[in-house]
């Protein structure tokens, strides 16, 4: 799993216990997963359909830098299934895992639409050009 997105835990992200508020973290995960699904499916019209049990295994505090790792685990006809891990960037200690997140590809009519994808597309393959580089 590649960890690309990083967040700095700031005072406005904390709960009354002085640790990262779960709702803030879930918002970040949903946004990052949606962006991942959009890039993989090549369509900005995707919606969150399902998020499995979320397992918080450790806390994050103000000043921590956390990173989110997301990868595709399954491609359905109109959906993509992802898994996510959030960890502390410095210690690499896991903060939480989400085993299954399902996003649905929508057509212009707002209904589920086939996406035609069957495997992960990597950035290096998405922006190929015909021009040789010096």
From TrEMBL:
Transmembrane segments: none annotated. GO terms for molecular function: long-chain fatty acyl-CoA hydrolase activity. It comes from Pseudomonas batumici. Pfam families: 4HBT. This is Cytosolic long-chain acyl-CoA thioester hydrolase family protein. GO terms for biological process: acyl-CoA metabolic process; fatty acid catabolic process. It comes from the Bacteria. Belongs to the acyl coenzyme A hydrolase family. GO terms for cellular component: cytosol. Keywords: Hydrolase. Residues 1-109 form the HotDog ACOT-type domain. InterPro entries: Cytosol_ACT, HOTDOG_ACOT, HotDog_dom_sf, Thioestr_dom. CDD domains: BFIT_BACH (cd03442).
């Amino acid at each position: 799993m590649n960890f690309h997105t990083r967040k700095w835990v700031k005072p406005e992200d904390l709960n009354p216990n002085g640790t990262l508020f779960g709702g803030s973290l879930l918002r970040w995960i949903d946004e990052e997963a949606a962006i991942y699904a959009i890039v993989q499916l090549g369509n900005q019209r995707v919606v969150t359909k399902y998020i499995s049990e979320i397992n918080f295994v450790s806390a994050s505090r103000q000043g921590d830098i956390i990173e989110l790792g997301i990868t595709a685990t399954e491609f359905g006809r109109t959906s993509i299934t992802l898994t996510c891990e959030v960890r502390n960037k410095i210690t690499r200690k896991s903060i939480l895992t989400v085993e299954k997140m399902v996003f649905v590809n929508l057509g212009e009519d707002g209904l589920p639409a086939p996406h035609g994808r069957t495997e992960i597309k990597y950035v290096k393959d998405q922006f190929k050009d015909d021009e040789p580089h010096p």
